[in-house]
Amino acid sequence: MMENRGFGAVLERLLDHRMLSAQALADRAGSTGDEVRAVLAGKSPSEVMLRLLAPALDFHAVDLFILAGWAVPDDLAPLDATAAKWSTRIVTDAARLPETGRRELLQLIRSLPQEERRAGFVLKPPMSLTGGPGAWVVRMLQYRNLNWMGIAKTLASATPTYLSAATYGVIGSGRQELTPRLVTDFAALLGIDACELAVVTGVPLRQVPPPPSAEAADVAELLWEARRLSAVQARHVSELARALRGDPTTGGSSASLGP
Length: 259
Fold this sequence. Notes:
The chain has 259 residues and is mainly α. It folds into 2 domains: 1-58, 434 Repressor (Amino-terminal Domain) (Orthogonal Bundle); 72-259, no CATH class. Helices cover 56% and strands 0% of the residues. The chain has helices spanning 7-18, 22-29, 33-40, 47-57, 61-67, 84-94, 99-111, 133-142, 148-158, 165-172, 180-190, 194-201, 214-225, 231-244. Helix 1 runs antiparallel to helix 12 (194-201), helix 6 (84-94) packs parallel to helix 9 (148-158) and helix 8 (133-142) packs across helix 10. The protein is globular and about 55 Å long. 42% of the residues are buried.
């Protein structure tokens, strides 16, 4: 595994992989070549720079903050940490639905009104800001409102990876290195190209993996969109997901779950 030399090294590997120059990235980001080159040389990027780089790199801004070792601003965090258990249920049930069911859930999530944030988002359990590749990917999933158990259940439902919840804590602490298989499956849930996540984390892949399954790609999209839901909203969507699976415990209550 390549040594973590800061965000500049991560960005340099990504630009080399894409065969993109610092000036080309600066032009896309609305920045200057000198500013980008300064980051590549080791200068810590500002919050403004990270927000500019995210769309230029086609990355979520929250993921760049994590890669840079920055605390994630509240406006980039999930709305409601207490929605985590419902988010997990949404995506694990969605992974077992046909495409039409997954699309219905996504449409419902996007149609729900945006509620106000009532409290800052706090990672549980907290993790180091500079813990290296394992911490990066686990924090990225935590900022998709998954705790360790949620990560374990979601990966097991949408990818071939089946590990205990505690194992993700070990990976996040840096005590267990990422493997090519883990990088590929983490990438599927994060909605990041597996080859690019391998470049970012410094974990070489033995071969170019196939694209993620349609189920995994839809789960990644649902997981990202569900970040904006309150616990009450997420529970409603979870009830619909369970009803679409034909689970009798919902009692048919999903009929009134529209916006």
